[in-house]
Amino acid sequence: MTQVVLSIGSNLGDRASHLRAAVRGLEAEGEIRAVSGVYETPPWGDAEQPAYYNAAVLVGGDHDVTEWLRIAQRIEDGEGRTRDPQRRFGPRTLDVDLIAAWTDDGTPIVRDDPDLTLPHPRAHLRAFVLRPWLEIQPYARLPGHGGVNDLVLSDALAADAAAMTPVGDVRLESGS
Q1: Options 92, 126, 131, 160, the catalytic residue
Q2: Where are the domains of the chain?
Q3: Is 105 among the residues known to form the active site?
């Protein structure tokens, strides 16, 4: 049994619908333990694109992290995700990233290979990942980087966190 925090985001098409599809897809594969609210965020890494909707999902299940990665990619593909090698941080219908994972006894899973690095190597730099995660796990710790709350409040992320806008009329609860 593993527990995984995933970051989900969309900036093309019906953003809310794509995020709901991600939650439904994850629910079909495991137990949804928490889903954050939705935040509208400026694009990161490639400014020439529309704003994103971002959220975080905590899920548990009998899959190992490699299988969670395959599930995430299958959900992305189901929502029409295409990867443009020329625009690594370009627009997308759906992005589902594994951020951190733990074994059933709470031990963080650390992995560094070409297909999957855990914890996510840039999570500590992304307010759009950390702020929703903090909402569903107030005392979360990003392995190797410390408390998520401390990271969100850091000077390095202050401007990015301030640019995030809660989208109160979009709900992603599991079972929706």
Answers
A1: 92
A2: 2-166
A3: no
